[in-house]
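Assemble and predict.
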Amino acid sequence: MYSEDITKAMASGGIAVGDTVSVKGGNISVEGELMPKTEAGNDGTLIIKLKSGYNIGIVFGEGVSISRVSARSAPAAFPFTKPKANTRLPNVTVLWTGGTIGSKIDYRTGGVYMTVKPEELLYYVPELSGIANISINHLFGTSSEDLTHLEWQKIAEETAKAINGGARGVVITHGTDTMHYTASALGFMLKNLNAPVVLTGSQRSSDRGSSDAFLNLTCAMHLAAKSDVAEVGICMHASSSDDRLSFIRGVKARKMHTSRRDAFRPINDRPLAMVRHNGDISYTNQYRRVAQGRSPEVEVSGKFEPKVALIKAYPGSEPGVIDYYTGKGYRGIIIEGTGLGHTPVSIEHEGRSWLPYIKRAVDGGAVVGMTSQCLYGRVHRNVYKNLRLLSNAGVVYCEDMLPETAYVKLGWLLGNYSGDRAAELLCRNVAGEINERVSIDEFLD
Amino acid sequence: MQNDKGGADDAAEYKKIGFMCGLEIHQRLATATKLFCSCPTAIPEQAEKPLQTVYRYQRAVAGELGDIDRSAEFEELRNRKFVYEVHDRNACLVELDEEPPHELNNEALMVALAFAKAMKMRVVDELQPMRKEVVDGSDPSAFQRTMMVGLDGRISTGGYEISIPSMFLEEESCGIVSSTEDTITYDTGRLGIPLVEIDTDPYIPTPKAAKMIALYLGTMLRISGVVQRGIGSIRQDVNVSIRGGARVEIKGLQDLDRLDKFIENEVLRQQRLLEIKDALVGARASVGEPADITDIMNGSKVRIVASHLEKGGVALAFGLKGFAGLLGREVNPQRRLGTEISDYAKMARVNGIIHTDEDMKAYGFEASDLARIRHRVGAGEGDSLVIVAGARADAERAAKLAAERAKYALVGVPLETRGAINSDLCVTRFLRPLPSGSRMYPETDAKPVLVSAQMIKAASENAPDIERERKWLESKVHGKAVAEQLLLSPKLQMYKNIVKSAGADSEFVANILVQKFTELRRGGYEVEAIDEGRLAAMFSAYGAGRITKQGVDELLKEMAKGEAGVDDLIESKGLARISGVKLRGLVESARGKAGAGAGVDQLRGEIMSRHRLNVDGAELNAMLSDLAKGAK
C-alpha cells in the first residue's frame, strides 16, 4: 500500500494504479505507468514503469506532483489451451491445490500469486496432452504452509473419486513445503489404492523459463499414466539437472533443502522409481503393484485427530511444553529427540528433565511417540539407560519413521482408533512408513 | 559512405540518409564479490576442471502482456540443452538458480553511482531490481537481474554533446565454453559479476563519432580504477539504422579500433537491402510455400543433401519469383542476400540453404531434377529455388524460417540482433530477432534500495573525472602526446600502480608503456602478454639501478617470449648492470689495453661494444670525462 500522502494525491487526481502518469517536481521527472506498491520498499516511493520496461522509484516528497496522462489499458487475455480429449490415451486426473507450481507472477506488481489457471499450464507444457487424457480439478489455490488435515481429507476424497470414476492415475500439484505431510496423510487415508497417486510441485515458479515445473509435471504425468505403482509418492527432480526425477514413497519423503530443485529425498528408503525426462521409468524399490482385473473401490479412511503436536527436544529445552499441550487437550505428541531418541532426563539440572512430564502425559492417556532429529536411522529404546528410562515412562519408539510422518500417522490413528490401539499401531508398519531393513546405500549420496 | 573523413561533411552525408546510431557500453566492475551473492569476481583460469556440471532446458514463457517475446520464442525453437560448468570458488547456488539472491552488493552500487555522477545523471531515488528475460541459456535463471540507476545524463567529447538517457547496474551473464548444434556449454564463473550498462541516445552523427564516444566512455570507466580489465571485461553494442531501414543491434564487438568500420558496413547492408527491396517490389516478387522434395532428391549426387537423406532426413524446397540474381547480390563484403536467408535457416539446426543463384551444377544437381523441383513447388522457369535438408522437424522449421526471411526482403530490413564476426571484413551475422519490450518484470526476491543523500555525496566525490586525470598525467609526463595516449590506454591503471610501487621515473615508465611497447609490438614481440607483476618487478629493478635502459629493452623482448621472471632473466641473460667500482675496473682495464694515449671516444666505444646492455651510458660518460680532466 502507498502512503497516505500518495493515496490522497491519487484520489484527488483521479489516478488509479495502472494509469499512465506524469511525475514532476522532484529529482526526476518522468512519464510512465503507476505500479502498485508491494510489501517491499518504502511506502512513500512512487513506483513508475518506464517505456523501457524498467521500474524506478521516485520519493513522493516536497514539491513532487503526480497527474494522470491516460487511463490504464486492459491486460491482454491469456491464450488458454483447453485439454484435448484423446480417448486412446490413459485418463489422468490432475488435482490442483496451489503452491509455487500453481502460482504465477503478476508481471505488473512482481508479486507471486496463486492465480494460475490450470489450463495455462497446458499452454506452457503442451506435451502433457500427448501423455494422457487429462481432466483438471481445481480444488484450491493455497500455499502449502496453510494446508491442514481438512484439505488432506478433501484431497483424499477427490483422489478416491477420480480413481473410482475411471482415472488411470492421479497427479496432485502442491506447494513443496508441506508436500510430504500431505503425501503421508494420503498414504494413510487411502484404502485399497489401486493406482499411482503422484504429488508434484516446483521450487521455481512457472512464469520463469528456468522453472522446474515443466519437467516435474511431465514426469509426474508419465508416472500417473504408465506406472503400475499403487502407492502415493512425490515426483520431483533427483538432481540439480533437468535429467532424472525420483518418485519417492510419500511416507518416506522429506524436503531437505529450502530452495534446490532436488530438495526431496527418500529417508531410510530408496526411491520407488526414477523417471527420465523422455518418460522412461525404471523401478528401484519394492512397491505395491496395481492389481490386474477388477479390484475393490478405493475408500477413504479420512478421520483425523488435530490435537496432536510435533515438538523438538534439544539441550536446555523446556519440558513444560508437554504440559502446555496436554493442558489444551492434546491426545498425542511426537517428540523429535536427539540421536537414538533422547530428551534431557538428568535431575541435576532442576526442571530440565522431560521424564516426569512425559510420564504425566502418558498416565493421563496421551500417546507420546519418539522419533529422531537425525532423520536418518532408527531410534532405539535400549542402548542407553536414558533411553530405557523414557521407554519405561511409556514413550513409543517409532523405528525409522520420519518425525513429520509420525505426526501425521498419530493424528490419523487417533482419529480412527482408541488411544491404546493407536499406541500399538504407531510403531508398526501400516503404509510403508516403517522399514524393517535399512540398507547401507540409503544414506545421503 | 565508406570514406575516411571524420568532419562535418561526413556528418551531413549521414544526416541525408537518416543515420541513427546509439551505443550500449557494458563494463564489468572489479568489486570483491558478485552483485547478489558472496562469490568472488575473479574469473577462474580456463584450465581448471569444473567441480560439477549441471544441465537444464529452458522454455519461453508468456511475458507481462501474456505474449511470448519473439526473440525468446526463437531461442526456444532451437530446443537446446544448456550445460553449466560450476567451479567451486566462483559460483554458488545463487548462480545456479538454486537459491534466491542475497542483498545487493553495496560496493557495486557505490561504483555505479559514481559513474552516474560523472555523467551528470539524475540518480533514481529508490532502485527497483528487475528481471530481464534471457532465453539463450546464458543465465540459468532465464533472466538477468538489472536495475536502472540513473537517467538524463550527458557527456561531451571532441565537440560532440551526447545525452546519456540511462545507466543500469546488472549481472554479467555466463561465458560460452563451447557450442554445438543442440548443446551450449557455459561457464558460470563470470555469471553475476556486477556490470554497468551505459546507453547513449541514438543521435550519434557519424560512425567515427561513435568510436570517439565509445573511447571516451571506456576511458571514464577505466580511470575509476574499479573496473575489470582484459578481454571481454568491456563490451560495446551498437544500434544502427537508416531512413527506411530498421534498428539493428550489433553485439560482440571486441575491437574498438574497428567500431566505425562495423557501423559503416551496417549502413551499407541496410542500403543494399533497401535496393533489393525496390527491385523485388518492382518485379512483383513473391515467395512460395515449402514442399517436400525428398523423393526427387533420393539417389541424388548432391552430397550435402544426400548425406541427410541417407540418415532418414528430408529435403524441402520453395520457389521465389522475381529473386533471380538478387539472392546472390552482395549486401556486405562476402555476404549476400542468400547468406542472410541462410542464417535464419541455421537457427533450426540445418547447415544452411542452397539457392539457385549459386552454381547448382557444382553441387551436383541435374537439370532434370531442378525442373521436377520447380514443378513440385509451382515455380516457373526463371524463378529461384531455395533448398534445405536435414532431420524432418529441423528441415521443416528451417524452410519456414528461410521463407519468412525471404518474404521480408520485400518489406525491407528486419529488426535484428546481429553478432560481429571479428575478422578484417568487419561484418555481422543474424543472431535473433530484436527483443520486444515485453520481457521485463520486477525481481521481488531482491529488495528495492533507497539511495540516501550520503550515498550521493560519496558518489560525487568518487566520480571519475577525465580532466582531472589528464592534468595529473601531464604533471607526471612532459610529452603531451604520450600523456594523452596513456589516458586513453587500457594500461593507465597499470601505469599508476607501477609508478606508485616501483620507484622508477614516471616519465620513463610512460615512455616504455606507450612508445616502447608500440615499437616492440610492431617488431613482432608479444609485449601485451607480459603481466603487470613482471612489469612492476622490471621497473623496480631499473629504479634500484640493477639494470640499464638498454637492459630494460632487452628484458622486455625476453619477457615477451614466455613466462620467465625478471630476476631469472637478469641472471640468465647477463643483464645485470655494471656500475661504480666494477665499471671503473672495466675502464681501467680498457685503458690498460689501449694504452695511455687512447682517447675518451675510443674507450667508450671499446667498453660499449662489449657491455652495451650492462653499462649506463651516462655513468660511463661521467667517469670517462672525470678521467680526462684528471689526465689534464
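Chain A touches chain B through 55 residues (CB under 8 Å).
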